[in-house]
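SEQUENCE, STRUCTURE TOKENS:
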Amino acid sequence: MLANLIGFILGFFALVGAGLFSYTYLEHTIGPRTTSEIVSVQTTKATTTPVRPVSTTTKIHTPALKVVTTTVVKKVNTVATSTNEQIIAPGPLRKPVSVVLQTSASTLSLNGVLFYTNKARAENAGLPPLAENATLDRDAQMKLDDMFAKQYFAHESPTGVGPGDLARSVGYTFIVVGENLALGDFDGDKGLVDAWMASPGHRANILNAQYQEIGIAVGKGMYEGRETWLAVQSFGVPLSACPAIDTGMKAQITTNSTEIAAMRAVLNDQKTQIDATPQNDPNYNEYVAKFNALVPIYNAMVETNRVLVATFNTQVQAFNACVNAVTH
């Protein structure tokens, strides 16, 4: 029995020794753990921050809509010259063929005809002299050459070209034009003008107080088989005699009117959109702001165009009054 007890004690100490050996081995193998290597996981209690609810009833500011000017632009007056051009052309003066021709009858001159024409105006009506106009000189020369070339003696050519057509073709813009024609061998420049003054229609042209300018052409050539003289007087009241009209202003009025109409259409659409939108709609203020921003621009354009139209119409009225005074 003693032997069994001794064996138990020896076995116990052997087991303890083995445990100590294992601990020592592990310590040398991985080293002792330090407190810094120990990671502790802490659990934090979740907290819920209350969220403030969003209000579903936002207050809407409703500014007043601005008033759109609805001034009606007056109709632009029309210029009278398009229908009131006046042409004065008495029947052509034709002198019977002389049996005996004198030397003086073979000479006519532009300067001489101009001198005696202005002399007749001064002595018979106290009128100022007519100014020679180079464009009307060209007009008169073209008429003279055409009569010789086409063998006619009339204010209207065989192709239907009259004094007004001829004036426009040479670039003479006019309110009134007149024409005197003469065919034959007259006793010089004075004789020609005296012959015109003896004819009521031609005299009225020479003594017309409205005329300001004149063109003259004289020439000798073959007409109906014989050599003879032709003379032409082209009288005129130029368009510049009446107050000028700013045509650029008319174009600007037309452009402005187009832009105003387009802007008015935009405003109408915006106003319709505003009227159809509830005031508590988040977009309502934006629609109103856009509308109100455009209104003063529109109103300013309307006012600018109104002033332009009034100015232009005043110019047209002054011009038309001048034309009526000249032609009546």
Remarks:
- The CA atoms of residues 88 and 153 lie 16 Å apart.
- The chain is about 50% helix and 10% strand.
- Strands lie at 86-88, 93-94, 131-132, 174-183, 213-223, 226-238.
